[in-house]
Amino acid sequence: MSGSQMRPAAHSLVPVDTTEDVRTRGAGVSRQVAVLPVGSFEQHGRFLPLATDTLVACAIAREIAAAHPVHLLPPVTISCSHEHAAWPGTVSISSVTLHAVIRDIAASLRRSGVDALVLVNGHGGNYVLGNVVQESSARGERMALFPAPEDWEAARVRAGVETSLLTDMHAGEIETSILLHAHPELIRPGYETSDFVADDRRHLLTLGMSAYTDSGVIGRPSLGSAEKGKGLLASLADSFGAYVSLLTSADDSVADTGDA
Q: What is the pLDDT of residue 12?
């Protein structure tokens, strides 16, 4: 049985691979790719847990690991959620700290023979992750950020998600659907009646989320379904194939990245 088949398919957030699982999987590939879910701990309205972004990132990463021979890592669970500070329970670290954590993890992986890292980001406010990838790539290191907006759009269309990515900003149709599929036991009552739209958010970084929503929701969670969540994850796992090809290519140049 392969390492990916041995992973728990249910609700574990922490991979249960042994060092031998990692060794065996690495022996069968030209270059090892690690997948690091990066979530957050922030308000998601009254019906989704504070750990929603971590749960979403882990659900995506598990789906990827079931389809591709990658080294699945435990998640980073607290990140840059400063725009949600007005709500109880939200916890943040600085972008400098998150940058340093990712760099340290990547360096540790390289020392153990895993020289490619994909950050599976579950929180839109983690803007610094793009800078981490840019800087790492400039140093000749293999790193990528997933999903890209194009990956989300393809998944949205394939899964039949009605809300646009602009409108589906926070605790909306996409996040509710993924949790209805992956963690239905964690959803509280109220998502059916919590729709709220605020498409013009040009001052979000200055004013924070509380300037645009009283409930903490921006999107249409009432449209969420487990079926859509399953379709979203399946599409993202398919999209990830282009990233694997790019990061494991023997050619260090990026002449044709395709969908990646």
A: 72
